[in-house]
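Instructor's aside before we start: the two examples that follow are unrelated to each other. I chose them only because their records fit on one page, so don't look for a connection. First example below.
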Amino acid sequence: MHHLRITADGGHTGSNRQTSAVRRWVAPVSGIVNISGRLKHAEKKGDGVRAQLVHSRFAVQASWNAFGNEVETNANRIEVQAGDTLDFVVDCIETASFDSFLWSPAVELIELATPDQSNDRWLPGFTWNAAADFSASSEKLAPSDSLDPWVQLAQVLLLCNEFAFVD
């Protein structure tokens, strides 16, 4: 698992298929969405990466492989209900060697299930973009959003080996 990471633009797979890089989008409203993006695996070494779009209710919706190239990752007319999740999963094919990837998918709301759900934000045409809307670092937090010292301590304790590997 020492390679596993996810960033706004991509990441690296884990050391096996049980440790995949996963980005999750939660549907704010019910409707139809389109997925777009490009999966890039730049290395000509290793065996490439596999990306999947996994719907919380309908399982795998699409799958793409990349090995030393770039592939379109589009999926159209995916039905979602408010609270459904779409997971963007990237894992290794056989080995995790040279499995860094670039993938920042976008989810576009194209149709509301019931028009009365709309508000100023959730209208058809609204797009969530992983590169623009994903934040993995605290430097992007506003000062009012920073964690207080007790919360920071709790976070450190939850991440330490002694807590993670309790017998």
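Example two begins here.
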Amino acid sequence: EFVLPLSLAYSLKMPNNPYFHKSIIKDWVYAGIQFSANSSHSNGSCDDYYPYECASGAAAFSLLACLYSYDLMEFNDTKFLEFFNKRSDWLANHHESGRLTNHQALIALCLLLSSKILGTRKWDQDIDLRINRVIKWQNEEGWFQEYEGCDPGYDTLTISFLSWIYEIKPLPEIRSSLKRAINFVSNFTNIF
């Protein structure tokens, strides 16, 4: 996942950014994506804490970082594209037992970004399924289900992922869901 902050450090032209367009940073990002691809299981999944657990969250968070970095760094590597395809296929077909709404939004976002990079629409139904699940799992108060209740921290992640999805796929139901979620989370912030 650390390829994402590295690729941002490499690409952001800001005053006093010592990492801007440093070739070693680009090499590290490339190596990080390569490590993610090489360390995956044969089905495209990866582990989080335990060997052979095939964790949705770890697979999706790392894929998001790799996809975003690949695009930002303008890499062109067919092995990476094969990895993105395999990981996305696994995520599209894997359904974890708990209700982690942030994972559903994250997986939908990964599938959208993979679709864009790979030029495919094969995950369209899976994307819609995940988006609909996120909206269905939203409580009437505005929070998103995480296991058996509310978690304002994970709500902010879900809001972030849904916002990104909305930029790509501006559906009115996503906008409505975001409004409710932001209204709920605003109860936990101090705005001056």
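The mean pLDDT is 96.
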